[in-house]
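Notes from hallway chat w/ T.B., transcribed later so I don't forget. T.B. wanted the structure written out for a chain they're using in a teaching module, and asked if we could keep both sequence and structure tokens in one place. Agreed to drop them here.
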Amino acid sequence: MARMRLRHLTVASAALCMLLLCARVVLATPPTTKPTSAEAEKAEKTEQVKQTEQVKQTEQVKQTEQAKQVKQTEHVKQTRTQFYGRQAGVRYVRQPLRIGMSWDFQYEQGFVLNDPGPFSKRWFGRVRAGVLVVKEPWILAIGPVMEGAGLPSLAWGLQVEVTHLWRGLWAQATVSMDGGANLFSALSAGFSLLGFEWQRRLSGGGEVTNGYLLKLRVPVGIAIFLR
């Protein structure tokens, strides 16, 4: 009988301890309260500020990358550009621009279009030896010339030529005089090796004649300087 009572007391004590422990845990846990509308609005504003800051940082990174690309592009544009025919054939070469002076030699072979004379006498030749002044992409050439369609009609003079290296365009102005006191002036323009020339001849007797030529230009001095 005494054992039964002792057992009941033990069980009752254990149950009481469990109830006290649960009550302590419940009391120690703070009550969960729903946030008020003001707190919810404040939290929403904080989240919006965070998102705005993230967007700003992303934009700053994009702008930095774009600035780097622009700087690289400008660097490439300031370096030598080679054109191969059409615009689609552009190739950029990263190397310093070429600047300097050098000797020059150029040969030109032309064909007179409006000369009614024999075919063999419609060919025209010109040789220039002078100086090159290069500041890429521009090349200036100046020097004395010897020209004519044969030894009896040789003329001597001066020629100035401007070339845009990157685009292959060039233009010339020439003045010369032959042994018969005939004065020649010529303007030429072309692309790469081919060009068109207009010549004006003022004879010693005051007679004026015009000539139109297709010509081939071989710029030996420029080719050697640029190699």
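Follow-up for T.B.: The beta strands are 81-83, 90-92, 99-112, 123-135, 138-148, 155-164, 169-178, 183-191, 194-202, 208-219. Might be a good example for the class.
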